[in-house]
UniProtKB/TrEMBL annotation:
Protein's UniProt name: Uncharacterized protein
Pfam families: UstYa
Gene Ontology BP terms: mycotoxin biosynthetic process
UniProt record similarity statement: Belongs to the ustYa family.
Pathway listed: Mycotoxin biosynthesis
Organism: Sphaerobolus stellatus (strain SS14)
Key words, A-Z: Oxidoreductase
GO-annotated molecular function: oxidoreductase activity
Length: 153
């Protein structure tokens, strides 16, 4: 692929998967477990990048870029104030990037309303299930793509 000549999506069918959205202590803001879980959410063999075409051109996969940005925001929230200046440009990029992709996907799924009293008493919304694109396929594709490139190299 050269210049702007490349596919908009990866060459795979994601299919769908049921996901239940609920509170998870694993994704709390500032615990040892949460730091590990946030780190692992973006831990792919290719670093969220894939190589496509005969020349194995490098591309970022949007889902991994988005997860990377959420992880960067988590880091910025949990770090000491004196360290924030090191992340300024990166955090600004990530906030804008996530804003753009939220608007781009324009997810019109309706969700149960969460009352402030529930958040204060239970710390989260009631669980609900929805049908999502199967993100596990992206992790699998990324791992296979990484191995393919390193066998080629």
């Amino acid at each position: 692929y050269v210049a702007d000549d490349y596919p908009m999506r990866l060459p795979l069918e994601l299919g769908s998967a049921q996901a239940t959205f609920d509170c998870s202590a694993r994704y709390m803001v500032n615990t040892n477990i949460s730091r590990e879980v946030w780190s692992k959410s973006t831990d792919t063999q290719g670093g969220g990048f894939v190589r496509l075409g005969e020349d194995y051109r490098v591309f970022a996969v949007s889902m991994f870029h988005q997860l990377h940005c959420i992880s960067a925001l988590h880091t910025a929230i949990t770090m000491q104030t004196s360290q924030h200046s090191d992340l300024g440009g990166h955090v600004q990029h990530c906030l804008n990037y996530l804003r753009q992709f939220i608007l781009c996907s324009a997810d019109d799924t309706v969700e149960p309303v969460v009352t402030l009293s529930r958040l204060q008493s239970q710390g989260c919304a009631a669980p609900f299930t929805r049908t999502c694109r199967n993100w596990e396929r992206l992790y699998d594709f990324s791992a296979a793509n990484y191995l393919e490139f390193h066998q080629y190299k």
